[in-house]
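Worked Example 4.2. Read the sequence first, then its structure tokens.
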Amino acid sequence: MKRKYKIVYSPKSIDDLRSIYMYICNVLEADGTAKKQISRIRDCIKRLDTLPERHEVVEWEPWSLIGMRKFPVDNYIVFYLVNRTDKVVTIVRILYGGQDINRQLDQ
């Protein structure tokens, strides 16, 4: 059996999850929807513990050069890096797909 990858969240990705929750809960006034959305995102991220390289590498530099990968979850995009040597997947950012993704990743 293959050893599974460990999933690690960057501080920015944790802030992203909090922001997503707060926006849906407070601005859209949909607490139940906010909880379900965060749960869907986290469930999809958990699946990266096996075959994390199945998603595409981003097309723009410098992120393509370092192997940044992405995949959609509803209206959000999860960006992550895979460390094959240490068997670690680092969740870098979780962003709303309608915003300026390049600008957000550069921050």
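Now turn to a second chain, presented in exactly the same format:
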Amino acid sequence: MYCRSGGGFPGNLTDAQWARLEALIPPAKPGGRPRKTYMRAALDALFYLLRTGYPWRYLPGAPFPPRSTVYNILRQFQRDGVWEQIWAELHVALRNECGREGSPTAGIIDSHSLRAAEKGAAKQR
């Protein structure tokens, strides 16, 4: 399960993982220069940093794009809500694979949650 072929880093995306994520990556914005960055390598760099906890300046340059490019992609995805879209899509797919409804159909609120919400609410006069 954890064996990776191809000699890359252990956190690199497998072909199956990339096939699933590739469809969720937005295309380059129209009107600008064409995208030169291979998005799979950029995501591999992000996952490498997340997995190892290394600072940005320690990102190896050989298999990955420049760290400024990777950082700019991370920030742009944050601003555009891409990470939330990816999370939502993968969450629904995981629930379906587990034989559950794609989105939750019920919620539970207990009395402790209600009391905590009441204490934090602003008092109206």
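Notes for the reader: The CA atoms of residues 58 and 84 lie 27 Å apart. Residues 15-104 form one domain.
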